[in-house]
Description:
Layout: H1 14-23, H2 28-56, H3 62-107, H4 111-114, H5 118-160, H6 162-169, H7 172-209, H8 211-216, H9 220-272, H10 278-311, H11 313-319, H12 325-328, E1 341-350, E2 353-363, E3 368-372, H13 379-386, E4 394-399, E5 402-403, H14 409-413, E6 416-419, E7 428-429, H15 430-435, H16 444-454, H17 457-462, E8 470-471, H18 480-494, E9 498-502, H19 510-523, E10 528-532, E11 544-549, E12 552-557, H20 559-565, H21 567-581
Parallel strand pairs: 3-10, 3-11, 6-9, 9-10
Antiparallel strand pairs: 1-2, 1-4, 4-5, 7-8, 11-12
Amino acid sequence: MKKLRKNHSxxxxxxxxxxxxxxxxxxxxxxxxxxxxxxxxNELLLKIPLTTAALFGGELSExxxxxxxxxYVLFALIMAVWxxxxxxxxxxxxxxxxxxxxGKMLGIHxxxxxxxxxxxxxxxxxxxxSYGADRTAYTLINIIPTLYYVFKATxxxxxxxxxxxxxIVAFVPLKYVYAYIMGRxxxxxxxxxxxxxxxxxxxxxxxVRNLPLIxxxxxxxxxxxxxxxxxxxxxxxxxxxxxxxxxxxxSHQLLDFIQSFVLIVLAVILIxxxxxxxxQWVAFFLISGHLSSTMSQLVNEWxxxxxxxxxxxxxxxxxxxxxxxxxxxxxVPIPEMGRDVRFEGVTxxxxxKSALRDVSFTVPEGKSTAIVGLCGSGKxxxxxxxxxxxxxxxxxxxxxxxxxxxxxxxxxxxxxSYVQQRPEIFSGTVREALTYGVGREMSDEEIMxxxxxxxIAGYIEKQPKGLETEIAPSGTxxxxxxxxxxxxxxxxxxxxxxxxxxxxxxxLDAQAAKGVxxxxxxxxxxxxxxxxxxxxxxxxxxxKIIVLQNGGLVGEGTYDELMADCPIFNEMVMAQEKEVAx
Length: 582
């Protein structure tokens, strides 16, 4: 067997697996119902060979024939009901597991995604957790009834002759030792398969999002080759699984054949010695065949359990990830007045990369504040910390004198509207994009007033379906400027107390950008506005400017004050004016 490509995740512990399953909220009622039906099904399975053996022995009485017909009809009905209930339990298990895992992903702290590609985690919800939940529900429904059948069937055969039981039991340790060894390989092989599925999912998601970039650089050939290599790795992983399964199947079939051969010879000898009757031989033959396959099923369950463990690696990683939930327990009410925002000695790093160093400044309530600086100076980081996507390493951020981490997270975030640097929208209608997360009913007139402010009304009015116009996934049917205008209109509708803007006009032309800037400052004149911008000419119209450089505060004041007292800001303005003039 070829050496596997190194798995990026360490082997998950059983404790983590049980944690995942506990959080998955399995449908225990349906599992118990299916379990009960399965137990009765196995009880009938024990009686059918005895009834059939009586017929083979020449018993053709009305009772014998009636019992045989009744048991077979009842057996068929119970088997159908069992399959129906088991399918229901397994489907609900997958549904609950996927839903709860997705909910956990939404609540994970943003720092988790800094070192993890979210696209690769998609298969944890779509593929990994579904197998783990399905097989777990199946095992819970089947394992005890199967063991019950094995013990009862073994006892029945033992009542015929102890040598027959010995012939069955003697092979069990050998099968289970072999299953344990193969289970070790199975875990590694299956974990590698799930890793490669995640890699392929992440690769495809990233490339599909960036098809224009691939086509612009006519790099289809290179990307096709990269895709082929990614697919090949998954194929090789699957082939290793197929080869391992083939080896296991052949070996297991060989053990079953040897066991059956030994049992048949042993039974014939006992008949010849008149130690068992022909009717007992027929019953033994019918029971032993199913008993052997049932024991093999128990052996296979161990293989399945190892595969479940492998399938839950990424789910365990997600459930172990840091969560925002502890922050939601904050109980300090949000101040109703005096909501100045204050950074006090804030230091923050993305891993070893420093972003802010001992930064202190105040954003006055009801005023407009611009945060400026060169790329990498910590502007966007300041907004992310304010939104509580991350926690400061040192220092604190306050609103109205209250540390923001002590406030209930969901209530706190409702205070903000946030237009990010690269705004994105989901597929759906224009109306759904505009009302996403707003949380209240709005009339068409109110919506259209907002889109007129941001300059997207013309596009909507030209569409035959108006606000019901469909938007392609990730907004690919719209231009970057149209997406930005839609997002700005959505935040106008949200009407939060604090408006966070991260380069809100970066995708607009100069004329449109000026119109949006004027609309922002006039529409939200009574709101607190915190704006990250590279457009230093715009800063002439805000009440306050914060200047950052290399993660440190180098200037704070009005436009005129900074032009007079802050050399770095002065140089930035002069450089931009020269660039515009050229």
